[in-house]
Design brief:
- There is one protein chain.
- Strands 8, 9, 10, 11, 12, 13 and 14 form a 7-stranded mixed sheet that branches. This protein has a 5-stranded parallel sheet with strand order 4-3-5-6-7, sandwiched between helices.
- The protein is built from 9 helices and 14 strands.
- Helix 2 runs parallel beside helix 3, helix 5 runs antiparallel to helix 6 and helix 7 packs parallel to helix 8.
- The longest helix is centred in the middle third of the chain and has 100 residues.
- It has 439 residues and is of the alpha/beta class.
- Among the domains are: 114 residues, 3-Layer(aba) Sandwich (Rossmann fold), CATH 3.40.50; 157 residues, 2-Layer Sandwich (Heat Shock Protein 90), CATH 3.30.565.10.
């Protein structure tokens, strides 16, 4: 914004010499003597008089042609228009300030003149000092008003542009939001279909597994009876094959049934007080025989600070351990399988235990280590893989440990072996009211 020091009203432009040009003034006065006297005074004050008009029409023509910086306007003029009407035309058609000159005027005329928003009124006769001050103030006020108007117009233009940009952005966001909402609706619909299909799959697995379980137990039972009926060596060999195949199939059916129970939330847990050392012995003895058949070293140990008796579900704990140890034996051709139980922490009557199952087997490729906990996934997924199974053992183990409040993890290097870890929180039992369970 301009200050009085920054604005030079009598020299709004600069000449080629670098000096400010004097302000250009048009005199509109019907008395020539008064006009010439006013012209002399203005020139003495340093202003440039660009013309003298005696009528309103002449003033409008000269303003359009000579573009003065200010018009000194007598209210009483020759012709059809007086100074007030002429000032109104100047206000409507040209951006030029007006100062009225009058010797006397009635209140009604002064009121009409004020409606044209002149910058001031000068009463004849006037002094040069008053004339210069009025002109300087008029030019200053007009310049600042023009700057404010231009700044306002520029601001309004920017606001309109920004408003248009925001409106366009808002429209784009609304469109994107509607697309997201549609996508979300599609995803929800797809999810419902997937959930329905998943429920149908689990119900089918549970039904088929349950239906297969009864005849498979019958087959194994009859096979055992035939084995005890003094078969020939060749018949015994055949029965052993049937027995082994049936037990393998029974294990797969049991896994499928357990998996469907976990997925549908039907898996039941029965916390029981038992001796951890005795139960671990019951879990691992049969597996030790299987390891010795493969000439593997087999060790298990429980740290001294682990409580002797705990309360949790021994059947589910045994299921997890048997799954992990069986896998280790299956995928280890030489070396060892080692099971350890340690204490992580103990608070009041609750203990936090850590279990680890380590082997020196084939290991799990790095890119398969997370996937093997997914259902129906094998570490070795090649068509000619050596080891069978439905790929549910680790999934069931992981889900069981999660449901029991723990977590299962894996560390493995291909060709060097694997170590499975899982933790478990259990209450400490002082007395055993129920005997140990075997699998």
């Amino acid at each position: 914004m301009l200050s009085m020091k920054e604005f030079v009203p009598s020299a709004p432009a600069s000449s080629s010499s670098g000096k400010p040009d004097p302000a250009k003034i048009l005199i509109t006065e019907d008395e020539l003597i008064v006009a010439l006297d006013l012209q002399s005074r203005l020139q003495h004050l340093g202003f440039e008089v660009v013309g003298i008009a005696s009528s309103g029409d002449d003033a409008l023509i000269q303003v359009e042609d000579k573009q003065p910086d200010l018009v000194l306007m007598d209210i009483v003029l020759n012709g059809e228009m007086d100074g007030v009407e002429t000032a109104q035309h100047l206000r409507d058609e040209f951006d030029v300030p007006v100062i009225f000159l009058t010797a006397n005027a009635d209140p009604a005329t002064l009121e009409r003149a004020g409606a044209t928003y002149p910058f001031s009124f000068l009463l004849k006769p006037f002094k040069e000092r008053e004339l210069k001050f009025s002109i300087d103030m008029a030019l200053y006020h007009h310049a600042t008003t023009r700057q404010l108007r231009e700044a306002h117009d520029e601001l309004e233009k920017r606001v309109q542009e920004r408003t248009a940009e925001l409106a366009a952005s808002n429209n784009a966001l609304q469109h994107e939001l509607s697309q997201h909402l549609k996508t979300l609706e599609d995803l929800n619909a797809t999810q419902k279909i997937a959930q329905s299909a998943d429920r149908a799959k689990n119900e089918f697995l549970a039904t088929v597994s349950h239906e297969l379980l009864t005849p498979m137990n019958g087959i194994l039972g009859m096979t055992e009876l035939l084995t005890e009926s003094s078969p020939t060596p060749q018949q015994r060999e055949y029965l052993d094959v049937v027995q082994l195949s049936g037990e393998t199939l029974l294990a797969i059916i049991t896994d499928m049934l357990d998996f469907s129970r976990i997925e549908t939330g039907a898996m039941e847990f029965t916390p029981t007080a038992f001796s951890l050392r005795e139960q671990l012995d019951a879990f691992l003895k049969p597996l030790e025989l299987r390891a010795r058949d493969k000439s593997l070293q087999f060790f298990w140990s429980i740290a001294d600070d682990v409580p002797a008796n705990i309360v949790t579900d021994p059947v589910r704990l045994g299921q997890v351990l048997v799954n992990l140890v069986s896998n280790s034996i299956k995928f280890t051709d030489k070396g060892l399988v080692e099971i350890k139980v340690t204490q992580i922490g103990c608070e009041q009557n609750r203990v936090h235990l850590a279990f680890s199952v380590r082997d020196t087997g084939i290991g799990v490729p790095t890119d398969r280590q997370e996937a093997i906990f997914e259902p129906f996934v094998q570490a070795d997924c090649t068509p000619n893989r050596r080891h069978g199974g439905a790929g549910l053992g680790l999934t069931i183990s992981s889900r069981l440990i999660t449901l029991m409040g723990g977590e299962i993890t894996l560390e493995s290097k291909p060709g060097e072996g694997s170590t499975f870890y899982f933790d478990l929180k259990a209450d400490i039992a002082k007395d055993l009211n129920v005997g140990a369970f075997g699998l």
